[in-house]
Amino acid sequence: MGARDTIRSIVRNVVPPAGLTRALAVQAMVGAVGSGLFHAGSAVFFTRALGLSAAQVGLGLSIAAGVSLLGTVPLGGLTDRYGPQRVWIVGLVLDAALFATYPFVGSFASFLAVVVTLAAVEASTGVARQVYSINALPPAERVTAMAYQRSSLNVGFGLGAVISGLVLAVDTIGAYRAMVWFISGVFLVTALFVRRLPRLPQVARTAEPMSRLAVLRDRPFMAVSLVSGLLTAHGVLYLTVMPLWILAHTDAPKTVIAALVLLNTVLIVLLQVRVSRGADTAAGAARASRRGGLLIAVFCLVLPISGVTRGGLTIVVLVGAATLLILAELIESAGTWGLTATLPPADQRGAYVGALRLGTQVQYLIAPAGLTALGVTTGGWGWLPIAAIFALVGLAIVPVVAWAERTPRLGAVPVEQNMTSVP
């Protein structure tokens, strides 16, 4: 393959094809500018502009995470009742309004009210966004479209981080207020963008819609949610545990941490679409998730080597380990999208997608403390049980998904294409 063909191949895997896939990817990138800006600058904004203590910020965010966990399934059910596009737009408008109020927060109580409400809104809009992508596209295109969206998300996050650097360099109250108002504007622009997306036909509902929490009784599906959710801990490993390991147990300079974050962003943009092929069926998605879990296990065996190497060899080991984890993240993410697109029934997709996200929320509660304790505070031997856990979870997901495929979903309409036009 010549250089020109290589460039064309890269472009095809980064720039989405014209049509709805490209529109969804552009929307993802625009929204991610605001998210990336806030994630990079929020800690300083909360303490510097709002005058909150680190303990107050941590407590508020923890409570918000709990609300997100509890609300994922019932709030996800709003999508089934009102339609994904409507819920998505309303959520974005609420996000804009809530961010616009941030500069007027004057106490911990008002801060808590804003972050908790934002968490509840995200619990519903996150589901609506995924359900719209699934409903709007043919089954064969869904996973690829989600891959393009994730690639675009990382471009947006990067742009947001750059803008955040400028805000932090100015470091004035006015700059921080302008930051959150800019983010509010980004949400409004995104809402207008979503409003212009094609309006979808309404999915036929069962005669007696099930309770929004009834999905929790679907044991095979909830087993998929738990196992798949545990595999998403690769994010905690990359952004939290690995940097702490580098600081505590290697002789690598601190700057290598930033370089590895940049490596993650670049490889996601370049490779996410390519490695997502084959995950557009439940069985293919399960196999992708299994490969992701096994790659995480290999990463857990390679990273500790950096604790006994020195100089340039340490950097080589760290880059090799990080690359393994990035590949695991890319492949596992495709597996998650495939499961999201194939297992939920069409008429209860909001509730089921919310239930699938529940496993990830559980992972967020246990992984940061558990993986840090094993991987960092043990001095190195704790990576062995971590590797064993991810290997076992990776091996378990294929039979668990097969179990879920054999079991009819609760309240499902047998034929997904059973739709009626919107009046």
Task: Give a short synopsis of this structure.
With 423 residues, the protein is mainly alpha-helical. Helix content is 77%, strand content 1%. The chain folds into two domains: 15-202, Growth Hormone, Chain: A, CATH 1.20.1250.20; 214-406, Growth Hormone, Chain: A (Up-down Bundle), CATH 1.20.1250.20.
Keywords:
globular; mainly alpha; two-stranded antiparallel sheet; single chain; Growth Hormone, Chain: A; disordered C terminus; 423 residues; 14 helices; 2 domains
Counted beta strands? 2
* Uncertain regions spanning at least 5 consecutive residues: 414-423
> What is the count of helical runs?
14
Structural class comes to mainly alpha
Description:
Mean pLDDT is 88; it is low at 414-423. The protein contains 14 helices and two strands. The chain folds into two domains: 15-202, MFS general substrate transporter like domains (Growth Hormone, Chain: A, Up-down Bundle); 214-406, Up-down Bundle (Growth Hormone, Chain: A), CATH 1.20.1250. It is mainly α. Helix 3 packs parallel to helix 5 (108-136), helix 3 (54-82) runs antiparallel to helix 13 (349-375) and helix 6 (139-170) packs across helix 12. The longest helix is centred in the middle third of the chain and has 32 residues, at 139-170. The protein has a two-stranded antiparallel ribbon with strand order 1-2.
